[in-house]
Every structure is written in C-alpha cells, then in structure tokens.
Amino acid sequence: MREVYVVGAGITSFTRLEYPLSEIAAYPAMLALKDAGLSKVDHVYVANMGAARLNHQSGLASAVVDTLSLTPAGAEVIENGPASGASAIKTGFLAVASGLHDVVLVTSAERLREVNNLEATDFVATLSHPLAEYIYGVTLPSLAAMFTRLYMQKYGVTERHLAMVAVKNHDNALLNFFAHLHEKITLEGILDSPEAMTNNPYVAEPLRFFDCCPVSDGGACVILASAEVAKKLKKPLVRLAGVGQATDSHCVHERAEPTDLLAVRGAAAQAFKMAGVTPGDVDVAELHDAFTILEIAESEEAGFFKKGQGHLALERGETRIGGKIPINTAGGLKARGHPTGATGVAQAHEIVLQLRGEAKKRQVKDARIGFTCNFGGFGNNVVCLVFKRED
Amino acid sequence: MSVDVEKILRPIDNPIPPFPPKYMMLAGGEEMVIRQVNREDIPDILCHVEPLLHVERDYYDVVAARLYSELLAYYRHRVQDEYVLVAQIDGELVAVVNGRLLSKEVGMSYHTMALRRGLRVGAHAFASKMEYHLDIIGQKEVLIVAESPIGFRRWMIEYGLEQRFNIAHELGGVPSWALTKELFNKARETLVVGRRPVPKHLLEKAQAAILPPTDPPKAPADLLAATRSMYDSTGTALMSQRWKQEGKL
Questions:
Q1: pTM value?
Q2: What's A101's domain CATH number?
Q3: Among B66, B58, B48, B35, which residue's Cα sits nearest to residue B225?
Q4: Contact: A115, B233; criterion CB under 8 Å
Q5: Could you say which of A212, A233, B9, B162 is the most buried, measured as most Cβ atoms within 10 Å of its Cβ?
Q6: CB contact under 8 A, A195 and B238
Q7: Interface pTM, i.e. ipTM
C-alpha cells in the first residue's frame, strides 16, 4: 500500500446552521482546499448520516461536488451511523493507498437541528436493533445510562468523575472558536451546590444534562493525498499511519460483558499495529464522548489506561491539556458538538491541527502522534485512526 | 376650582410585600442575586433594554419594546401595582422580570428577559417571579403568555401550565395560560431554587450599581437564522405529545 498524508483541513462552526446541507459540506471543503493549496481532486467522499430522512436531500455527494465546481471528480456519500466520518476517511485512505487516486477530498455535513429534538433523538435511536431495542423505546441516552450504571457498579466510577469529564471538555471548548458550547461549567455549579439538580438535571439517571452532548449542525473536511503529492505542498507532513475498524453485536445486551467495548479495543489495536506505535506513544487523542462515560471507557479500551482505571487517570489530571495524554482538546462531542456524520472528520481535523502545531491556545506541546476513535451505534461499529507527524 | 389631572391619571398602588432578595449558583459557579428594584432604579435598566429593540432573534425585539414600555410606565406612574425584579452577577444585569397584580388573588406576568443567554439565567428569574406572586404575595394563580418559542417551552411546557384561553392577557390580548399554586408546588423541587439571606458582600455589590451586560444577545449573522427562530417545532411536538397523553388530541 502507498503511504497516505493529510494535506488540507477545514471545519465549520458547530452550532445551529441555517444553510442547505450541501453548503455545510462545501464550506469546510473550500477551507481545506485553500489550506492545501489545491484546486482539483480526483474523488470526493461525503460523510453524512441523516440527509435523506432529516433534510429531504438524497444524492448529497452529487450536490457537493457540483457546489465545489469539482466535477467531473467522482463523488459518493459514506453512511455508517455516527462513525460515518471516520469511515469516509478510511474509504479515502483506501483509494489513495491502493493507487486508485492521488488526491481525495473527504468532507462531511450534518444538519440535525432541521428537525425538532424529539425527532432527532428518535432518528439517532434508529441505529439500535429494530426488533430487540428500538421498538421498546430504547434511545442512545437510555443505553448510555444503563452502561454507566454497570460501569459505576463494576469499577467505582461516580457522578463526580462524569462531571469532571464535562468540566474538562467545556474548558477545552472555550479555547476552540468553532465549538458549539462556549460555557464554562464548574463541579460546584453542576454537582455540589443546592441548585445543581436544577442546573444539571437527570436526563437518564445516572446521566445528567451536562453528561450528554448537544445536538449540533456542522461540517468538517480533510484532504488525503499520496506521498508524491504531499511532499510538493508546503505543509507539515501528517501521515494517516493507521486505520482500524471493528464491529460488535448489534444488541448491547447480547454482549458477554456489556461494559467491554470490544469494537473499540479491536479497532484501536488494528490502527496501532498498522501505524507501528503503541497507545503509550500517543501525544493527543480524540475520543467519542457522546456521553461522558464513553470518554472514560474508550480511554481504557484504546489502551491508554488499564480497564477500570480511566476515571482514576482523569482524577490525576492526566487527560487535561498539559497532562500525560490530553483527550478531546477541541472540546469533544460534549462541548465542540456532535453533528453525527461529521464528527469523525472533525476529530481528524483536530488531530491534524495538533500535529501541525496549529492548535493555538489548546496546543499540546510537541505533539507528533495522534489518535481518533469514532464510535458508531452503541459501540457496534467503531473506526480508529492513528496520525503521525513525519518531518 | 382647579383639577389636578395627574391625580386622575396616576394609579394608586396597593401595598404589596417586598420580594426578599435571594441568590443561587449557576452551572458555571457564578452566584446570581435576584432582587427587587424601585422606580429610581429604572433608568439604569432602560439603557440596557433599549439596544435589544434592534435584535431580531428569538423575539428579543418584541419583548424589549414591550418591556421598555412597561418599565417606563412603572417609572412614570402609568401602571398599577407593577413590580420589577433584576438578576445580577457581580453587579452585571443578566435578567429583568416584571409583572403586576391584576387582583388580590390573580397575578399578571409581564416579561422575562435574559440579557445573558444560557445556564438557565432567565428560567431562574422567572421562577423567582412566580415565587413572588404565589408564595410571598400569596396569590392563587398567575396569568402568563409567551412571545418566543423558548419562553413557551420554559413556561407552558416545563411548568405544565393550565389554559385560561377565555381570559385575554394584557400583552396584546392573546389567550392566557395560568400557573396555579398547585402546579407551582409540583415544580418547586425541580425548577425553583435560591437561598436566603443573600450574603452581605453579594447584596452590597448588586445594590451598588446595575452594571451593563457583558455579553448581551446579538442579532444572528444572517436573516435565515432570524426567520428560523420565529417558530419552534420542538415546542409543537412536545405539546402534541402532552395533549395526546391527556386525551385532548
């Protein structure tokens, strides 16, 4: 396989965006093309989860490629639930690595706020098992709440640990202009004060309001290219060095140990093996914290900490910027926001900025290896990526 | 014989008990003081409400215009039995709420305006206003309307207000909703917060000056967003859900 480099990156604000979905995908693509200094690509991949159902838009990739005046480049949509973003990057990786294309543009867009909150929650719930979960009213917050309850019983995670994730990621988001939530929160305000239960009520006990990501619109883009192309461009060389993907049982209750996220474990191991690095080599990571418990659990399954000890590392401040392994420096899904299909690309965007040294106030010093975990379903389809700074 | 027209135009306010100041901690750890202000404080508030007349977002323009006139009428003695509460963080004005007594037993809620968005600033101020009517003055119910979808979700849906569609509200004659003492009691544990007495240093800072909002609401960058905020499908969906459960649909 040929080596694959990230040569351009762009992102929109994650918020409520009042533009057609194709424009939301095109805007970060234009920024990425400008960043790379390119005007043409061989192929366009568009990551998206809900265009047809939420936005009455089919054939999104055809609209995007035309909006960008990139015709006659090939174009297609990649849908893999909330892991659509990293799946699209993986597909782009394969296209360049195989020699099929030299330059591919992987953009993404989601406009969840087109519909009301009930419909958005219902839409995301459709990724659960249709007969064993969805018809009984299962939603992602309810699955995450049951998972959290088990995690608390088994490993001693408390609501305070969950709140610490939220506080950390809100702090990081304050350093990210593009983040959805620019609100400082404190443990006292959301957990300890007499007003905490009103400020931060239960959504699905034990998960509270500030344990859940917001519903966001947004888009992000990366451009992948062969070594031959990348080395001609005047950008720091960031290589997409490892790609891993794994699945797990669709129904969470069919897992032998529901607190084990085997798809994360498998996908991360594959990505590290391909990149020739270990979790201990990683300088900065983007994990899929749609719910605060997931940042803790994924940090263990990816291998940064032993199983059941992620919350202890959090207590020690190891996952903060300046800590041993900073996690979710852009705010994570928790505070940067979670436009489902675009999230995986936004994670890659952040890692590229970090490895280039362009993350400004949230820059992790001397970051050279980055990791992303894009979590589809409730851990039933996970894509992990490893990036390396090479010059 | 001379006639003092002012005596005719100026309503005679009924004595009502004052609102004892309270404070609460927001999610961000800031302590917000809610207190009653007097007529002489109104000019210090009007200057911060006026800029919002030009903010076409979530009905801030409509609410600001109406609130401005209500505050001015209170200042100039042209409305009976009105009161005004303000919410302040370190002296900064973050919310204004007002209303009046329609009768001894019924209150008329006027407006709730958050000058800092997020973290339930407006919701806490509204809850304090309801506490004033129902707990402190001792009224039986408060008539309420909402101009914005956000207000509708916060009041009509979160408190489960009862319809009083046969009563025209003073704000444009639109149908009224009502928060009864019973509904307020139900909401008390989850929506109504605050501590008394307010520590001296917090109260003194609040009383020293009404400082301008540091991050007031702004108009959206594009008109599409302004248009979008004129309706709220989540509110519609939630009300449909509730009415279905109650067998009204």
A1: 0.93
A2: 3.40.47.10
A3: B58
A4: yes
A5: A212
A6: no
A7: 0.91
